[in-house]
Amino acid sequence: MDLEQRINAFVKLGAFLNQFQQNESIKNNNVEANELFFDGFKHQLKLAEEHNGWFTKQNIAFTLSNWSNALTNKNINLWISKYNFNTSTSQTVAIIMAGNIPLVGFHDFLSVLISGHNVLVKQSFNDKHILPYLAKYLEVVEPDFKGKIKFTEEKLENFDAVIATGSDNTARYFEYYFKNKPSIIRKNRNSVAILTGNETKEELEALSDDIFRYYGLGCRNVSKFFIPKEYNFDAFFNAIYKWHPIIDGSKYANNYDYNKAVYLMSEFDMLENGFLMIKEDASYSSPIATLFYEKYNDIAELQHKLETDSDKIQCIVANGFTDNEITFGETQNPQLWDYADNVDTVDFLLKI
């Protein structure tokens, strides 16, 4: 199977996903293999929602919309244009996936297959319904994918390299267990925002998307922000109010109530508005329904701090703070070339 075949298969998958990017699916009879897969995929999405309370219909639709927009011929060719795919031989790459947000491991899955390798997938129990069905779709629209995609719930065996994502604790296990294999091991990371107090209402409203999308469970979600010493929170609280319906979700509400009780019993200082608590804390990783903040005196000092802590940070949301910053509201809209932990997955795959 040549590179063009692989590209075309994923473009067809993007067109298939385009039907499911709203809360209600809209069937397009021009999509290849639709009669075989459309109704079945609706069922898989329903199963995913029932299996994992964090995977709401809105969150799943948002994920599918992003992947539909990414998987176009133009985007894929722009992404892969800098690589030489003639230098690698086909290997089997194992992927151990997280399950915090829908299809969180899809970029690794795509990268392995687009690079010409075979993929051996070990999914998270929390996200096990959607990807196998999409893999079947790929095998139908491009039969040469048959035999190149395998899913397992057993111990990983017979693979040449591994991409594994987990917590800091599981990462230590991964590093030991896979020490003799080429690997990418991902640990806990969080995203931060830098505020100056001069942000517009529109910027702060966009920041609320970075905070609340997927209930804040993703590594690209802002879990902490840095503010000047005399920062006034009124504008921030007003701007994020559009997300107040999030408290209607029972799992989110339970976490909000629990963490609020813990903070109150511990007599921690905090501010809250009925669906979000903000607390001054040096940590980068905040609990669900909580946003940490830290005050800064000097921008240069803050830049140095974040450079020192770069292994803990996935994204920096800001306006004019650093060269690699992300615009307010865009953390959950990564491009194909925006690699997790800034590790070029395709480059790694072409060198194994």
Automatic annotation (TrEMBL):
GO terms for biological process: bioluminescence. GO terms for molecular function: acyl-CoA dehydrogenase activity. Keywords: NADP. SUPFAM superfamilies: ALDH-like. It holds the Pfam family LuxC. The keyword Transmembrane helix does not apply. This is Acyl-CoA reductase. It comes from Winogradskyella psychrotolerans RS-3.
